Amino acid sequence: RWDFSIAAHGSFFHAPEETLRVLGSAVNKGHDARLKLRIILARYDAADYVAPDFSTKEKAQIVTGLPYDKLVEEKKVFLGGLREEWIIEATKNGNYDPKTREGMKFKASYD
Questions:
Q1: Contact between residue 83 and residue 96 where contact means Cβ atoms under 8 Å apart
Q2: Separation CA 8–CA 11 (nearest Å)
Q3: Which of 62, 77, 78, 110 is the 20 to 30 A CA-CA neighbour of 36?
Q4: CA 66 to CA 57: how far, in whole Å?
Q5: Cβ(27)–Cβ(54) below 8 Å
Q6: pLDDT for the residue numbered 20
Q7: Which residues, 6+ apart, have CB-to-CB distance to 59 below 8 Å?
Q8: How far is CA 87 from the centre of its chain?
Q9: DSSP-assigned states of every residue in 23-36
Q10: What whole-number percentage of the chain has pLDDT above 90?
Q11: Are 38 and 47 a contacting pair, CB within 8 Å?
Q12: Which of the four pLDDT bands, split at 50, 70 and 90, describes residue 88?
């Protein structure tokens, strides 16, 4: 549910109500799964098990093993290298006009 709603970058712009509905249902499914897990754990005398905390973006990245810092570095290398090459090539080919970006600052979610 996360992938086809929230991770689809344009979905929140084009269909915000539906995107939030799907996100809400994903949260509900997670909650239901935790309740079912408690019953199973109690049945096998493991009721003291504590589920991983993924209440924030940072905690979820740790739980999933996402190498966030590595990915940010790779993105920065791309932006400073291949992206710049593409811009130069597209400008030469007439497919890109740098004037369209004048006065605009590039921002990333990790800055």
A1: no
A2: 6
A3: 62
A4: 11
A5: no
A6: 87
A7: 52, 53
A8: 26
A9: HHHHHHHHHHHHHH
A10: 49
A11: yes
A12: very high
pLDDT of residue 50: 85
The Cα 54–Cα 68 span in angstroms is 15
Structural contact between residues 50 and 43, judged by C-beta atoms closer than 8 angstroms: no
Look up residue 63 and give its DSSP letter: H
Q: State how far the alpha carbon of 87 is from the alpha carbons of 5, 96, 103, 111, in Å.
A: 30, 7, 17, 22
Identity of the residue numbered 94: G
pLDDT tens digit sequence for 35-81 = 999 899 999 999 888 888 988 988 999 999 999 999 999 999 998 89
Percent of the chain, pLDDT > 70?
93
Which residues are CB-contacts of 34 (< 8 A; sequence separation ≥ 6)? 51
